[in-house]
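During the second year of the project, the team shifted from modelling isolated chains to modelling whole assemblies. The rationale, set out in the original proposal, was that interfaces cannot be judged from single-chain predictions alone. As a representative example for this report, we include one of the complexes processed in the last quarter. Its constituent sequences, exactly as entered into the pipeline, are reproduced here:
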Amino acid sequence: MAPPLGARPGWSRRAQYSLFFSFLLALASLAVGLIMLAMSLVAPASYNVVRGAALDATAPVTGALSEVVTTIRGLGSGAGNYWDAARQNGKLKAQRARMFRRMIEAKAIAQENRQLKAALQLRERSERAVASGRIVGSSFESLRRFAVLSVGTSDGVRAGMPVRAPDGLIGRVVDAGTMASRVLLISDRANIVPARILRNGMAAISTGRGDGTVDLRPLEVGRNPFRRGDIVVTSGTGGLYPPLVPIARVVRLDDDGAIAVPLADPSDASFAVVEAPYERAAIEAAKEAR
Amino acid sequence: MVRAGLGTRGKLERGPRPYATALPPASVVAASALAILPIVTQLGWYPDFGFVMLIAWRLLRGDVWPAWWAAPLGFANDLLTASPIGLSVSLWTAAMLALDLSDRRTMWRDYWVEWALAVALIAVGEWAHWKIAALMGAPTELRSIAPRVIIAALCFPLAAWAVARIDRWRLGR
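Output from the structure prediction step:
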C-alpha cells in the first residue's frame, strides 16, 4: 500500500484551512469532553435530566424487544413442558405434598412468632412497595453492573430507592426517567449493603465484585464466620435497605471472608419491586453518595 | 470504462448514494445502540461496539469524517450505554487524533498493523473506563478488563468486514 500523503491535502488553501480548523475543533471538543467527564465525576447529579431523558428514549425499545424475547422463550419452554407433562406432573404432586407439610409447619411457627412478638410488644413495620416493574435490560457493555427497570418517576420511583425481587435484593435506583429507571445491582463494586448471616446473626458487609458475585466481609475481625451455603440477609443498618431481605448464598470461602452468589438473578426475575427507603433520611444520603 | 457498459446490467450509472457521508456516523450510532438490546447478564464482557466500529471506519478511510465528529458520536454513545457522560466524548476524539498522528508516522499499513493499532486503542479505552469506574467508587482489579479487551480485539475483524461492506455499498461500487 502506498504511504499516506500526510495531513497536507494538496495546494488548495481552502482544503488546508478546513483541515486545520477541524483539527482545532477536535482539540476543543477533546477539552469539552474532559470538562464533561470531570463534571460527571464531581457532580453526577447535574446530568440527571439528560440521563433520564436518554433512558426514556431507549427503554421502550428495550422493553418491546424484551417482550418479544420472553414470548419466544415462553413458546420454547411451553412446548418442552407439554412434552414432558406426565413425569413433571408426578414430580409436582410430590413437591406439592412436601410443600404442604412445610406450610403447616410454617403456619405454626408464624403463629408462635406472633404470640412472642405480642409479648415483646414489637411494632411491625409494613413494607412500602412503591411500584413493580420488569427488568428489561442491563449494562452488558460496561464494567459497571446496572439494570434497566420498566418503571420511572411517573410511578413514584425516585433515585435511591431499594429494589427487590421475590427471591431477594436486586439493588437500588440510581437514575430515574419518567417511564424507566436504572438500577445499581448489588453485584456492582460501588454497591455496599450492610448484611448479617441468617444462621447466627453476625454482622457483615456485602460488596459487589462486578462479575455477578458479591464479596462478604465480617464486621468483627477474627475467625471467618462464614460457611458454605450460608444465607446472608440485609440488616437494615443505614436505613436504605429494609431488613431481612435475602441477599446471597455463600459459595466459596477465602481467608477472612467469603464469595457469594446473589439469590435474585436479574435475568431470571420476572418482576422487581421498588420500595420506599426503610428510613426517609437514607434517600438523601444515597443521593449525596452517588 | 467503456467495457464496463458491456458487462452485466446495473454497472452503469452507479455512484455514491445520496446520503453516503451520513452513513458512517449512522452506522457508529447504530453500533452504540446495540446497548439497548434486552440482554440481562451479570458479566459485562460485551465490547464497546460503537468504539470498535468507529476505529474500523477511521482505519479504513482517513477522510471518512473530520476528527471532531467523534465528539457528538461519543456523546450519543455515552447516553446509549450509560457510561459517565464525557468519557466517550474525550476518549473517541483522542482516538481520532492519535490515529491522525499514527497516519503521519507509519510508512506502510497492512491488515496486521491495523489490527494492532485497533487493539492498542481498545486496550487504552478499556483502561480509561476502568480508571473512571474506580474514581466513581467501583474499583476492580485491573485484570478484570482482560476478557473485555480480548473479546473486543476479536470483534474488530468483524467490524472491519462490516465497515468494508457498508463502504462499498454506500459508494456504489
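The helical segments of chain B are 2-6, 23-32, 49-60, 70-81, 87-105, 111-135, 146-170. Chain B touches chain A through 62 residues (CB under 8 Å).
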